[in-house]
Design goal:
With 882 residues, the protein is of the alpha+beta class. Among the domains are: 11-143, no CATH class; 159-196 and 310-344 and 407-562, Chloramphenicol Acetyltransferase; 568-596 and 607-656 and 778-873, no CATH class.
Length: 882
Amino acid sequence: MATSPTTPSTTREENTDSEARRKAIEQTLASMANVISPAQLTYFSNRSIAEVEALQEEVSAVVPAGNIVGLVMGGLIRLRDRTLPRDRAKSDVSALMRGLDMLPRHILPKTIYGTLFIGPAAVLAAYQKLLILTGKDPDSAFPEGLWQFYLEFALREDSARHANETLGFHQALKNYDLIVSEIDQLAAWVCTISQAYFQFDDWLYNEWRERVLLYLIDEAVAEANLGHRISFKRIPQAWAAQRPYRRGQDAQPDETFAQYRWRRFDNFLQSRLILLPEAQQQHLQIEYDRRALAELAIYQQQLSILATLEPDKYRENKRVIPLWQARVGIILKNRYYLVPAYYSDQIGQPILFETLLPDSKSYPLRLDYSGNVYDLEGHALDVSRSGQVFQRDTKQLLGYLRPASFQAIRRQIAAIFAHADSAEVVVVGGLDDQLVSIRRVEQEQARKALSNETARQEIQAIKCAPVLINWDEQARDQPLAHIRQHKRGIGDHALTIFRTPESMVFDQSHIFLDGLWGMAVSEILTGEAISWAGYFSRLPQPKPVSDPPYFLTFKPELALNEFNKVATVEVSAENDTIDMKMLGTLRKVLPKRHPDLKLTVNDILVLYRCAFGLDYWPSAALEDALFELNLQNKPETQETHQLVHAALAKAQQNNPSIVIPMDAISARPQERLYPTTFRNPFTDLWSHFQAASDTLKGYHDHKTQKNWTDFSAARRSLLAQLNYFGQIMRAYKRVALEGGSTSTAMMKLLAHLPNSLLKLLDEIPQRVDILNEVLKGEEVFSNGGRVARSSSISRFVSAKDDNFNKTLVWGVLTDDNDVMHLSLRDFRPHVAALRSINRPDLAELIVQDYLDAYASGFNQFVQRLLDILNANATHSVEEVAA
């Protein structure tokens, strides 16, 4: 009997696939043996033959790519040093992925290679084993950290961008009664971005310096046994409470934001450093100087936004944008304009100023068609990211580039508005929209398919704009994930800024900006834009230049219609109904009932997420909508209904595997973050919670001593379970805080667990294996925490890697008014199916219903837990006697 494509494969087919896979693995093992014998590898790897053979088998099982694996191993063997040349790992991993692409898909294990999107993590894991086999230093293979390396291979698609929102700019205009034209409002943001290009290294210097010094002073305090003194308690938290994100009233007139923050941190730190013993002060300074020399420049280069992404089939390649080529991109009425970010003459040549003084001598620099810059005598020049200009041969400092003058920017923006008002309407669906909808793995081929020279030139032009500002106003009463879907370039840049009537939205690439650092950058930019707007409010209206800045036509290209569109389709929901007052009360009550019980807000959110499936039931409105969908007697509708039904059934399961990104920058800023996969091991916790709730109800119904005794015992058991859960969460955090390795302190933290739970020690990773963690996990749960005091950050949506297994992405942020904002991005299969039958509204209803139910259920859970914790015996002696 013939089988349909959806019928499971027969046993014979499975055996055929298994046999083909076995042969591929054997060929891969043979290719490694042809290069070098296992016995010889023991010399390189310093491991036994049994360990070497086990590693070879693991590599072959994950990447059964035959001779490609042998070629990569041979190349590593031929390297004399243990350290790898820069970019060697990138070329090796690309080669391994290319080898996988050449294999028939049916021989690859679908649990790992069901789609290409999960390939990078597995290939990277295999490559690490090859490094071990050949005796190479893994740190040298990933000088910017494994997370940065992984980002460029596996967080490429549009779903890997996250977004946040600030209210500060609009609030300042209103609170200070600033009358600023729309031209000058946009000019304020363009001036801000232009200055940010020049100052971004200084911002990164501050970030790195603060994190490292706070980490080192904590170590020094512990070494000197001074942790009991109030001056040394919670030093990082004390700085976070007063860390500025904009220049305050105490700023000096000529101070940049970076200089202002440096001074504020110095004042904060010095008051504590002088209390340390002299030996600790000296050791701290020596260690800081050592790390600054080894790490700082790499960190600044790693996180610089003066770069564009060059996509190939397997990864994103960062290409530096010289400061004298940098532009600020503006989108107005769906048309792109490019404004030079540097001070230039009338024909666009950058101007070199010999000093930093306002009246410095200056002259234009010459450019050639190859992208090089020269002085008037024809000497080749190098320009640093902060604008210093050096003669290439002698390394002599000749002078400085400067950001574009605010007068020039205002006049150019005025010209842009005039041009946009008179130009023909831009139809949505142009080249930019085509490119952003094509998968990144196909971008290289798609761009090569363009025969129109104008299209090629315009792509290269927009790649010189690391930041785009979409000034076309969007409605704020929609999820951030929807706002960020409007015109946003072609996916090669770091940041797009959107505008609503009350806020600014920042859409950020994970390759350049992680969640917390991205929010900090958004707040800094907002503060600088406020300063410019305040200044512009006192100036007369600018006169437009005679010609508008360079603009792009981005006409659609028929050749691009042949390429696959982005495979991930999403909907999103938001909610702000978490009862923060009640949650705060719970956190205060918990340690009163159990002195060691310290749960963070995120711990409680994750705890409830682990059991939420047991509580969830679709609302009546959703049930009615699904019933109506099922009544439509069409094959495509019936198939979609089945997908929805499967999604809802899975949503009602408990204890999902959750990827929690944890901040790693305190110990090693260049590592950025550690993702860890968490699944609550205390599966009995909820039965203990239910028992405590039921026995409390029994006591309220019949106030007897026996019922009170039963309840008290149930409550003690619940508190013990909550304490175990809290310790596990703290253990995971400690792993991240200590740079990815388990500490003695963490082991002590768990040492007093009962014998029945000591096996949980094995579940705490000895190191955070990024590649292993991202392969697991069905959901991402990212909490930005509570924003700093006076911060105007208001909403946040997180991102996910290009792995299809991750279908729900939770984002959490608590604003300065103590309102918690939840967001949920939904990538489950039914979303695309509903969109295909013109029912995206139903997909949105499903995710909104799910998020609303989580928030409502969470509030009920907190209330019930408070009732349990606050319960006291109220029965009388007479009732006991009865």
